[in-house]
Amino acid sequence: MSGAIPRHVAIILDGNGRWAKSKGMPRVYGHTMGAKNVETVCRAAWNMGIQYLTMYAFSTENWNRPGDEVSAIMDLLRSYLKTCKKTAKKNNMRVRVLGEKSRLAPDIQESIAVLEEYTRQFDGLNFQIALNYGSRDEITRAVNRIIEDRDSGVLDRNEPVTEELIASYLDTAGIPDPDLLIRTSGEQRLSNYLLWQCAYTEFYFVDIHWPDFRENELRKAVEDYGHRSRRYGKTGEQIVEESSEGQASV
Ligand code: FPP
After folding, report:
1. The whole model's pTM is what?
2. Distance between CA 197 and CA 176 in Å, rounded?
3. In which element (H, E) is residue 237 found?
4. Residue of the nearest CA to atom 24 in ligand 1?
5. Where are the domains of the chain?
6. Ligand 1 proximal residues by C-beta, below 6 Å
7. Per-residue pLDDT for the chain (250 aa), expressed as one digit of tens each?
8. Which of 32, 114, 180, 216 has the most CB atoms around its CB within 10 Å?
9. Which CATH code is given to the segment(s) 8-249?
10. Residue having the nearest C-alpha atom to atom 18 of ligand 1
C-alpha cells in the first residue's frame, strides 16, 4: 500500500437497516450481519498496520429507536462481548469500551469489566467500542469530574484547566486522536461521535452499507488517506519544509 498508514481509524458503522431492507429482510438481520463484520474489519485493520480502531456501536441517542430494536441490539452486543474474549485472545487485541456504562444492563457492564481487564495484557490492535456513547455526554462527564476532583483536592485549585487535562478526563484518555474517520452508508455527519478527538481528523464517507464494508473497502479508505496532506493549521509550504528537514536528519 502506498502512502502513510493511519495509526488510529474511527468508524461510524451505518446502514445495517438499509442493507437488510434492500434484501427484503428485517432491520435486526442487518444488525446481526453488521456485528459479524466487526471481527473481519478488526483483523483487516491490524494486517494493514492500523494500531487503534474505534467503532460506534450504540449512541446515547440510539435509545430512542423502537424498544424491540434496542433490545435486539443489546442482545447482539451482549453476545459479542461474551465471544470477544476468545477472539481478542486469538487476535491479540486489547478491548476498551467508551461511553456511559451505568445505563447499560448490569450483566453487560459486568461483561465489559471482565473483557477490559482480561484483554489488558494484549498488545496487538487496540479496539475501542463506543457503547451508549455521545461526545457531548463524554465532555460533560469529564467537566463534572474535573470539578469534583478540584473540590476534593485531587486536583490543585490553582492549576489552570488545560487541553491536556480535559483530554485526560475523556473516555479516550491515553488513546491517540483518530487520524481517519470513516462513515459508511452515504451520510456525511459526525452524529455526536468523538467531537473533541476529531479536531484534526481526516474524514472519508463511503456509499456502502456497513455489512458490505470489507477489507477491500478499508484498504481504499486507507489508500485515500495516504494521499492527503495534513496541515494542522500550517501552510503547505511549511509542511514540505518540515518533511524535508525530517528526511535530512534521518
Ligand atoms: C447502524 O445501522 C447500526 C447501529 C449503529 C447499531 C447496531 C450496531 C451493531 C449491532 C454492530 C455491533 C458493533 C460492535 C462494535 C460489536 P443503522 O441501523 O443506523 O442503519 P440505517 O441507517 O440503515 O437504519
Report:
1. 0.94
2. 8
3. helix 236-249
4. 17
5. 8-249
6. 13-18, 31, 34-35, 38, 55, 57-58, 73, 76-77, 80, 129
7. 778 999 999 999 999 999 999 999 999 999 999 999 999 999 999 999 999 999 999 999 999 999 999 999 999 999 999 999 999 999 999 999 999 999 999 999 999 999 999 999 999 999 999 999 999 999 999 999 999 999 999 999 999 999 999 999 999 999 999 999 999 999 999 999 999 999 999 999 999 999 999 999 999 999 999 999 888 888 878 777 887 776 554 3
8. 180
9. 3.40.1180.10
10. 17
Measured CA distances, 184 to 173, 179, 187 (Å): 26, 17, 7
Cell of 79: 453476545
Q: For residue 65, give the ligand 1 atom closest to its CA.
A: 18
Residue 126: count of CB within 10 angstroms of its CB: 22
Cα 73 to middle of ligand 1, angstroms? 8
- Cα(191) to centroid of ligand 1, in Å? 13
| Identity of the residue numbered 219 | R
Ligand 1 centroid from CA 34, angstroms? 7
Q: Cα(56) to centroid of ligand 1, in Å? A: 8
Q: Report, as residue numbers or ranges, the catalytic residues.
A: 14, 62
